[in-house]
Amino acid sequence: MACCGETEAYLEGPAVREARELVAELCRHFYAPGWVTRTGGSITVKVNDPDVPLADRLIVMSPSGVQKERMVAEDMYVFSADGKVLSAPEAKPWPNKPPKCTDCAPLFMKAYQMRGAGAVIHSHGIETCIASMLEPGAKEFRMTHMEMLKAIKGHGYRDELVIPIIENTPYEYELTDSLSEAIASYPKATAVLVRNHGIFVWGDSWISTKTQAESYHYLLDAAIKLYQLGIDWTTPEHGPINRAKRLRRILNTGTSNECHAAEQLKCVVLDIEGTTTPISFVTDVMFPYARDNVRKHLLSTFYSQETKEDIKLLRIQIEDDLRNGTFGAVPVPPDDAGKEEVINSLVSNVESMIKADRKISSLKQLQGHIWRTGFERKEIQGVVFEDVPEALKSWHSSNIKVYIYSSGSREAQRLLFGNTMYGDLRPFLCGYFDTTIGNKRETRSYFEIAQSLGVDNPSQVLFITDVFQEAIAAKNAGFEVVISTRPGNAPVPEDHGFLTIQSFNEVRGI
């Protein structure tokens, strides 16, 4: 092969021609189900030449930048067994892009070299993307007791399928090292999922690879549908997904016997309103105090640097509100218009913001400074439910770190917990998060919190909130979640799927 396989005659011969046409056909075939739409995804096969050992055969790869449903044999690249380009396609007239080798080439070579593959398919099928997101942070996709498992090499109906999951990168060639590690760590695997991206599938021939790729897509699609129905695809009985039952085991023993030790609970993140503190305290005490004292506060501190910063933030927010036609927004005159005029307009805007219960940083910062004065003058005292102090102390003594995440500013959070009827509870808290890290109903915010906490897996964090939408966002980030159903809290939807509590004693005693 070394002497004849790279000759011009061989490259133009029937074996290479057949492989080129096969790749073009497979690209057109897998375009239909959406695996290789636009220019995404890629397919490669080894040239079928029985006279040459599989490891030494030439490799044909689909290019980058070519519409997959329009590919022809002449569009393909041909490589030597060690990855050297032997033949590249000729440029086509505009609007076609110049020929470019796929960024998947180094990844394909790993499958060829480490697994002795005869073909590799890289799919961007939507089911491969969504399936990798069902358990945020998971390093594996698992499934068992499905008939189509029989089509995966080395698997039967009762076997457990394990597909490693690697994290996506901006460029596909940057996946090479993590793909290599996954291939080495999972010797039975014939596929690797790339989170939020797709899947790589290989086999000892193009037929084996195609069969397995179709089966993987079927199984991943089935997992997504089972997830939507609340059915557990990872267990033989395929019973209902019961996250609440699993969470009880984790909280009761520190770790689940069925889960990796890395999932041991390490942090608790608490909401305030309806979770640690009655909603009525916030709505009937804190908000009215800020509303009733905003003018007094601005008048007495107008020329302080802190209040100047508060006014600067408010001006920016109000200008944005005016552009967007926000109800209640009124223009703020320039500083040279006089202190009274500026304060009058600010008070009008702030009162409208408080009435609308807007969760915006400029308002929360000003409220925090007003409340600080109230706490310092003993005009306000922080209120928490009676079970909160003991729970905080218990978690603290168990080396479980406790954090607060509230729409109120971090200063306001410290003031509340530092001035309660039970004394200063701040020694039992490790930190505070507010909306500067993100909206509480957005999953991205909880990803950011997990990064800040430095946990190995988001499932090591328990989030307790009374707001269903916040619970969903945290769950989608991989957090364990409990919903607080304290008296006075808003009702949650039926069949919400979360564990609920009315007291922190239920968490400590679960």
UniProtKB/TrEMBL annotation:
SMART domains: Aldolase_II
Catalytic activity, EC: 4.2.1.109, 3.1.3.77
Residues at which substrate 1 binds: C104
Region Enolase-phosphatase E1, residue ranges: 268-510
GO molecular function, one term: magnesium ion binding
Pathway: Amino-acid biosynthesis; L-methionine biosynthesis via salvage pathway; L-methionine from S-methyl-5-thio-alpha-D-ribose 1-phosphate: step 4/6; Amino-acid biosynthesis; L-methionine biosynthesis via salvage pathway; L-methionine from S-methyl-5-thio-alpha-D-ribose 1-phosphate: step 3/6; Amino-acid biosynthesis; L-methionine biosynthesis via salvage pathway; L-methionine from S-methyl-5-thio-alpha-D-ribose 1-phosphate: step 2/6
Cofactor: how and how many bound: Binds 1 Mg(2+) ion per subunit. Binds 1 zinc ion per subunit.
Family affiliation: In the N-terminal section; belongs to the aldolase class II family. MtnB subfamily. In the C-terminal section; belongs to the HAD-like hydrolase superfamily. MasA/MtnC family.
Protein name in the entry: Probable bifunctional methylthioribulose-1-phosphate dehydratase/enolase-phosphatase E1
Species annotation: Urochloa decumbens
Lineage, highest ranks first: Eukaryota, Viridiplantae, Streptophyta, Embryophyta, Tracheophyta
